[in-house]
Design goal:
With 109 residues, this protein is an alpha/beta fold. It contains three helices and nine strands; from the N terminus they run E-H-E-E-H-E-H-E-E-E-E-E. Helix 1 links the parallel strand 1 and strand 2. The longest helix has 10 residues. Bound molecules: flavin-adenine dinucleotide (FAD).
């Protein structure tokens, strides 16, 4: 029997969701996606949020493959040597492979 591989995806944006869903095509991979919000923000609909015609969010249950485990939390530290991430809630999640999909942002001063 093939050995199972644990993959952790940090960030449930467009890139993280796509990567997580595609990885579930492999039966020997367990995928955990970590994102601070329980809902996916549809940035391409943010103008509709401003206009009042859409709330620009989608429940992850609608867009994540059934085999993707969602953890609603923020990753505060990556321990690459120890192969685990630390969460704001205090827990840790181990991995064999890590996908870093936290998007981009301006640097803090
Ligand atoms: C206001 C706005 C409007 C836009 N409109 C359009 C548009 O109309 N058309 C278009 O093509 N592009 C648009 N873009 C650009 C598009 O949104 C980005 O290119 C796209 O979101 C990038 O996807 P991503 O998955 O790399 O990152 P993101 O979508 O930014 O996703 C990153 C995810 O990682 C999570 N994250 C960050 N840090 C952590 C952490 N430490 N632990 C856990 N999770 C974390 C974030 O909460 C987020 O959910 C827009 C961007 C913005 C800001």
């Amino acid at each position: 029997m093939a050995e199972n591989t644990d993959v952790v995806v940090i960030g449930g944006g467009y890139a993280g969701v796509m990567a997580a869903n595609r990885l579930t095509q492999r039966d020997d991979v367990t995928v955990t996606l970590i994102n601070p919000r329980p809902t996916f923000v549809e940035r391409i609909r943010l103008h509709q949020l401003v206009g009042g015609s859409d709330d620009a969010v989608v429940d992850y249950a609608k867009i994540l493959a059934d085999r993707v485990r969602l953890t609603v939390d923020t990753v505060t530290r990556i321990d690459a040597a120890g192969r685990h991430v630390e969460l704001a809630s205090g827990g840790t999640v181990g991995y064999d492979y890590l996908i870093y999909a936290v998007g981009s942002g301006s640097a803090h001063p």
